[in-house]
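Hi D.,

Good news: the full-assembly prediction came through. Inputs first.
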Amino acid sequence: MIRHLFKLIWNRRKRNFLIMSEIFISFIVLFAVGGMIFHGLNNTAKPLGFEYKNVWVLSMNWKGSGMEKSGESEENAGVRQVLQEMQAFREIRNLTWASSNIPYSGNTWSSSLEYNNRQHRFHIFYADDDFASVMGIPLIEGRWFNKEEDVLKSTPLVINRQLREAFFGSGPAIGQTIVGEEKEYTIIGVIDQYRYKGEFEKPYNVAFRRNVVYDTASTMVTKIMFAVREGLGVEFEERLMKRLASVVRDWTLNIERLEDKRASYFQGKIVPIAVIGIIAGFLVFNVALGLFGVLWYSISRRRDEIGVRRAMGASSLDISKLILGETVVIAAFGIAAGVFVAIQVPIIGVFGAVAEGVYGLAALCSAILILVIVSTCAVYPGWLAARIQPAMALHSE
Amino acid sequence: MIKLENVEKVYRTSAIETLALSDINIDVRKGEFLAVMGPSGSGKSTLLNIMGLLDAPTEGCVEIEGRPVISMGDRQLARLRNEKVGFVFQSYHLINDLTVVDNVEIPLLYRRMASSQRRRMALAALEKVGLSARTKHFPGQLSGGQCQRVAIARAIVGEPEIILADEPTGNLDSVMGEEILKILVGLNENEETTVVMVTHNQAMADRTERIIRLFDGSQVN
Amino acid sequence: MLKNYIKIAWKVLLRRKFFTFVSLFGISFTLLVLMIVAALLTHFLAPAGPGSRLDRSLLVGFVEVYSEDIHMITTPSYYFLDNHVRTMKTPEMVSIHSAPVTINEYVRNNKLELNLKFTDAEFWDIVEMDFVEGRPYDRAAVENATPVTVITEKTGKEYFGQEAPVGKYIAADGINYRVVGVIANEDIPTWEAYADIYVPVTTSKSDLGRVSYYGSFGAYVLAHDKSDFGKIKSELRKRTEKLEPVGDIEFDWLKCYIGTMTDYIGAQILGGVGVGEGFEGTGTYLILIIILGMILFMLLPTINLVNINVSRIIERASEIGIRKAFGASSRTLVGQFIVENVILTLIGGAIGFIISIAALEIVSGSGIVPYGEFTLNMRIFLYCLAICLFFGLFSGVYPAFKMSRLHPVEALRGVDL
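Then the structure:
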């Protein structure tokens, strides 16, 4: 029977071509949307590695801020003063300075190191001794930076699990030294993850380098991250700002909450997906309506054929099955073409590196969804066809 | 073989009621060649549909091989049509998108059977009607006589016990019509297939064993 | 004849209500999406209405420096723009403004996050905006660093509620500014000129005189006429190609990029400008990408419409046969069918138009897009009318062609297309 269906559809390929191409495009649309959604879900399900609740960020801007200057400067004194003022607030539990690539900021810095003749790229952060406790980053091996490093000859690094595996595999990591072009680095700790780019991004390699504001005399410090007590409102924020603004009068300051930054990051990611999803949904609904109409009217055109089949011994169930089967096979052709195009995507790597499973899952779900929609569209026409009285159909001329 | 007792058929629409058949009593015996004659509108096709289990009578009883069909469901009826009955129509009713051999295979699709066996049986049926050379053609590429021979091959491929032919020569010229009749007669004589043929043509009817005449839905003798 | 066509078309559409519904749904939905996209695009991609001063302005948006060690594309400094762009001979006028700075202000226990922009007085001459109240600050105010400000209607509401803001003071970034003008919400610019609060550039805390080529400023260059764009570009190239490094960063060469607003937006969206390529022409590239996207989006509804039309014609094959048998020529039948389709698409277009007005109201009201007050103007309406007709003709032509080739005898027999 399947063979018969294929024959019928193949011989009617010209007429079915439009439907097949509609299914094909619908599949591509659903696949793209599904890929996006599954990619997002797949990544949001993984641990973020840090705490965003009750962590605030102070950004400082002054004349020429962001430019590296060496040596002690007026700005360094300013930063230290700001830090001191902030430590005096009871509401602030803990604070740390950070390089400008803070979570959800969109700023990224990357670097690479060679080890055992293999080059590894990673995202690099400058952090001081309190960074891990402010950000709530737990260590899974070794320890975070502390004062001991002051006397250490090589530069201490804390890396994430992924980079640890890239460098050392299952071998020991703590205490290992990596010789860079200018400096020598020692691994002192391993964290699980620090996905500062946000939940929708695939996990990546991360390394922290110790840099302490009171002894580096670097003016690169423009951000201070601080953990605050639960439930602080605008009132505290205003008080804090007034105090700090009176210390560094000609600087521009601004405070953001990591939680707000995360919310707007989420909005920025979800709104486009939702809009595209709604549009895709309407497109597919449009196609479903069209398909339904075409199938419906094709039944009246095929009365003759249906009458013959009935006379030759097809039961009304067989007729329903024929209509449904035909539609599903046509859809399968469209899907097959779509899958062929879809498997090119990971090969070409259009969307960069994406977990392999995501593509398969997106393709599978799109295919199933289309088959369900198509079958639903065929149910009523199939029922109509089954109700055709053979005696009437054959003698209608 | 097929027995009709007091069969009556009424077509109802909301406006009118048409009596298509009334008080029909026919007993088609196994192996006979029966002709049904009558002017158009006399109910010949309705009679054939009822005999072929395509339509149910409004009143009366239809028995096939001694079993009444009134209580049978759609699936049972379909199975009986498939196994016992072969149809030939005036306008052939071939499926234009399928090749000759695929058309002939249709009745076998509704039986459990290996596809190679289907193909073998279809080719054998086409051989019987002398169309072995045209199996891969589409109906559109054939003449009317050839189409009707395909339709006959399709009717006999399932080895039915009875063939119901509704004016099989109606659309054909006399030479082709004669060929078709010869095939039907041959089937009746050589394979003992029962044939019921509706026809207009007295000459054709005369070559059958028995004639039933219909007028305005009733039997006349 | 046409009247007759329309009469028949109307009857046919009523007879097959389901097909008519499917077609109308497809057309109006497609138009809805296209109109909203068009409204957003004109809002974001064409901040300069035709004939405006902004439309005959170019933007100096980036400088690029290159050496063995460093490759940097960044925004220019005030020093650079003041010394090398403002002094140009070919333009009618040059205006320098800063990139917006985010500041926090606390008003009645509410936190406002505001974008503060430092501009000169010429800014207001080039970016012509409608003021609901007051007027922009003038050259004297900029020269004397008078603490005056122009704010948007929205910002005014956040600071003062229902009261009129002009004459009142607002604290922004530690300075008390007197409000002199309020910009109408629907006139607030996008991209480069966007901000919530505008103040004289001389009140900036940053060091305007710092000798460096890189900073966070941009400049509008107003041409006497659009045909002068070439002259302006070559003058700027001549003035900047020989620049020697100053201040902090050594380089082999420096390039300064100037382009239209659309090019600038193209560069912002597409990003990734290659070494030495600049952003000239990226606007055209972006528009091409958008048009391609629109065509791809329209592909599915169009195929759907063609498919339905083919079904409709098959259904009417015997009617067509009879008409042909009674002497109707193929041309009249094709005409009939196309008229039918155009009427259908126009009705769909009208529905889509009404829905999109409603949808844009909702989008504007929702505040998803800051200052997104979208209106459908005549230009968009005409585009959409054109799209409608394209839909109607395109989806009707193929089936009509099939129909015209139908042989009357076959048509009478109800043969498949």
